[in-house]
Task: inverse folding
């Protein structure tokens, strides 16, 4: 069995045409190299599975030319320490001797909601274009992007980065009655309308994405990212849009926000992730700190390590297809 501690260096990406018939340009490789070598690091992940805590970070990237192609190579930097959290025996913490924040942390909240999908997750280009047409026809303001994942088995996935108007609805509604009944009634009417429009857009976009998506033996991922301090990431591993929408309502979010406040009293948090249970509740999974440490549920680390062992031994220790990769193209 190959140990992650024995990994030194690997290929992150190349300019070859891959199994999805995608090809990274040299310019894209250069951007990735600059990202890896910056003060904020790219995560070393497993199979692009967002529910897995990072294995570590990528460092010391360079581009090498061989056989008329370009290769992006980088060093793997696994965590140096693993320890139990004294006040909760269900949690583990992994950290570096000298760590850096992750590049994925985004403080800026977009004006409009961003919807990102992987074109390779659709049955065909025709079905992908039908999905684009159907979402445009909903007449809800959003920005569309593509995110390309290079994994052995890509789970169907759709990512919503929640825009300002949807966030404002959830923040202002509980406060509306404090500003006077007349104003509150008027404000709440507008906020409810905005909220319902958002829920309808989310619901119909999910239905469209998975009706045109390629079949998979894995449950689809619906991801909600809320930028700010900290970043909040919500993952629903289901295509049940009703369950998801109910979980985004105030009473379910209130319990989650209280849990976030609890963890913020214990750690300095840059990102925190919750996973939707089959009962429609948000369950804490893991969090990231400003120095790149990760704190999370023992189950998540166990699942991550098990999958990493499979990937490593399946590819003779090569994990170039397990690294987080995004090559986004905007669509409006």
Result:
């Amino acid at each position: 069995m190959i140990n992650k501690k024995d990994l030194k260096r690997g290929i992150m990406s190349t300019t070859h045409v891959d199994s999805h018939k995608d090809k990274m340009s040299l310019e894209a490789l250069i951007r990735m190299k600059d990202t890896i070598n910056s003060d904020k690091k790219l995560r070393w992940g497993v199979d692009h599975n967002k529910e897995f805590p990072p294995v570590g970070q990528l460092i010391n990237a360079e581009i090498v030319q061989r056989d008329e192609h370009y290769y992006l190579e980088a060093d793997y930097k696994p965590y140096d320490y693993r320890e139990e959290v004294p006040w909760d025996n269900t949690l583990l913490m992994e950290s570096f001797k000298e760590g850096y924040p992750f590049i994925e942390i985004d403080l800026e909240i977009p004006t409009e909601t961003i919807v990102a999908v992987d074109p390779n997750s659709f049955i065909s280009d025709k079905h992908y274009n039908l999905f684009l047409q159907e979402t445009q026809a909903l007449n809800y303001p959003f920005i569309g992007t593509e995110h390309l994942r290079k994994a052995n088995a890509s789970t169907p996935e759709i990512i919503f980065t929640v825009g300002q108007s949807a966030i404002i609805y959830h923040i202002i509604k509980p406060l509306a009655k404090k500003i006077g009944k007349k104003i509150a009634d008027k404000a709440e009417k507008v906020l409810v309308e905005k909220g319902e429009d958002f829920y309808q857009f989310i619901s119909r976009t999910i239905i469209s994405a998975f009706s045109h998506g390629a079949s998979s033996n894995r449950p689809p991922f619906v991801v909600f990212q809320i930028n700010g301090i900290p970043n909040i990431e919500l993952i629903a591993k289901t295509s049940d849009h009703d369950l998801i929408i109910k979980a985004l309502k105030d009473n379910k979010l209130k319990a989650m926000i209280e849990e976030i406040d609890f963890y913020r009293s214990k750690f300095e948090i840059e990102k925190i992730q919750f996973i939707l249970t089959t009962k429609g509740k948000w369950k804490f999974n893991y969090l990231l700190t400003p120095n790149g440490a990760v704190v999370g549920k023992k189950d998540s680390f166990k699942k991550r390590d098990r999958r990493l062992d499979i990937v490593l031994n399946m590819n003779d220790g090569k994990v170039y297809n397990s690294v987080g990769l995004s090559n986004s193209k905007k669509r409006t």
In short: Residues 174-184, 320-332 have pLDDT under 50 and may be disordered. The two ends are 47 Å apart (CA to CA). The longest strand covers residues 56-66.
